[in-house]
Specification:
Length: 518
Amino acid sequence: MPKKVSEDVFLLVKSLSASEKRYFRLNFSEKEDAKSIRLFKYLDNSNAYDENAFLVANPDLIPTQISNLKGHLYRLILGCLRQYDREKKIELRSREMVDYVQILLDRGLYMLAYDQVKKAKKLLKKTESLELHLDLLNKEKQLLNSFPLKDYEQRTRELIEAVDEANQKITFINQLTNLSAKLSAIYLKEGYIQNDGQYLRVKQIFRGGIPDFEEEALSLYEKLNLYRLYVNYYYFTEEMTRGYIYAKKWLALYESYPHLKEQQADDYLSAINQVMIAEFRIQRYSEFVAHRKLIYALNLQISKSTNTRMRQRILKYLFVHEFNRLFMLGKFSYGLRLLHRLGGHLEDFIKQTDEHSRIILYYKLACLHFGASDFSGAINWLNKVMSDEQAELRNDIHAFARILSLIAHYELRNLENIEYFIRSAYRYLLKEGALNQFQRYLLSFLRKLPKAQTDEELQPIFKQLLDQLAPLQYIRYEKRSFVYFDIIAWLESKIMGKTVEARIQEKARVKIKNTTQG
């Protein structure tokens, strides 16, 4: 069997929890599947797949058997997992019941099929899965054509109306999700909007793709998809206050329908995350902390779940929002102490995440070290961001990583290399078309630093840059630059003779006080 399949079956075995492995062993007899069970035990106890070692340990097997054996084991495990999750996931049970309708219909057991339709409809009401509902309706039409009951015409009219309504809802949701996918593709590559050209292009895509609707007439799932789309769009275009309104409406739907929190845990987590992103950006600390408790509660609920991806997402958001909380308070040194307690566990976790999450977490770790004046540590994490260029994700973070790296090298007095780093950063920013006024001012400022030798000579340079950057905080496409790190606070710390951490803490106390009173 090709190497890809060997890796697949090995990874699948390694992904199983202890309870899933126990369930697998209990459901498959060593007499019936002795060879597959042997392979399963070998993979479970191995750190890597070594086919030759397995053959040596099992001399009764020949190499040509291994290919089919791996394929068979792969299918056995997937079937076992489907059955294991059946009782926990309504969607799986619903899919199974809809399939039962077809089985009974094919056997000509029409009354039994009608009974199964009723059971499936009752279960589907708990999921509102439109695709499965439409599938069931089409099977019911087929059943009615094969075995008409009384009130045949009325039943047919009701079925047709139900099919049309389901199709309209599915079409509407597909239009929303297609549009969301287009926007996400642009965001993942380019990051946030940087100029009028980008904004007009994104706005045109959005306005041209969103279907007409009356919000009050929409079903629950239509609203979930609509609010999710609006949040993504307004965050992308840096209209955080508008996005925050829709993020709260998105989360409010789950508060109104508590049973959905478990069934749609993945989307519920996304809603919490998007609300907290806005609260971080607009400095609503008390609301931010309150919503963080929802993630902790969800983490307790999911902790014993077999959904590895969900557990990883929750852990990622716990880390990201703990970073954001520390940034809001300016508690960088405290954050570093927490990191030291974790040891290498956080970096091990980051390596398991997707490319986009890795870039974000590496950059946040760099900012944490920078804020605590550990500039060598900051450079270490920034280098991880900058060496990840192959991913072609988040050009904006790659660009600012270079700026922050330059400042960290200045803080370490690596002045003999600063010219090289400036040229390298300048070439990258020009190539990516990311050179805005904020970055031009900073690069010009950094070129002057090696020439200034005394504190007295440096003060006018810092003040000049502060005067240049301060107005940019209120210009639409320039103000985004201040989100990546509070450069204003860094300059003020230099002018005031304080650490950057102390200055950010001072500003944080004022911001939190103002938003609490407001």
